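Both lines are retained for reference:
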Amino acid sequence: MAELATVARPYAEALFELADKANNLAGWSGTLGSLARIAEHPEVKALIGNPKVSPQQLIDVIAAAVQGGLSGESKSFVQAIITNGRVAVLPAVYTLYEALKNERESMVEAHITSAFPIPAAELAQLVADLERRFKRKVQPVVVVDRELIGGARVVVGDEVIDGSVRGKLSAMANALASA
């Protein structure tokens, strides 16, 4: 992944600068998200290394797959990515772009894993609590994992808040093992 990030970083930074100047961070975020999903699709992956598929054919396939089509700038970006043989780095470009965008907007992503679906009111309260704690806007990404038994586990950046029953049982087992 470090290699992909090294290749993707200049693209992400250039797009971020372009989007920032045009006051279109959200627009490029949507476009890059679509391009990243398309690049990860198995059928597109099969086309990427195929010598029978010309760069223009690949551009046409990707452009056709983007809902709403590509703007002039985004089509130029796709052409550059394909010409340079970098289609595989599109997911990494998207990830790095989102990190730059979130930094600019003082936003952080919170990965919330819960044993059960979280009602909207409880999720709103959890997000408000996390925003107070981290002093930033919080974008929740919620996943249900029944193996947690109960409670929730929240990951924000490199900080983990484990309030799950499974996590507490694991902590107790470790404490008993070391005693």
Q: What stands out?
A: Residues 2-21 form the longest helix (20 residues).
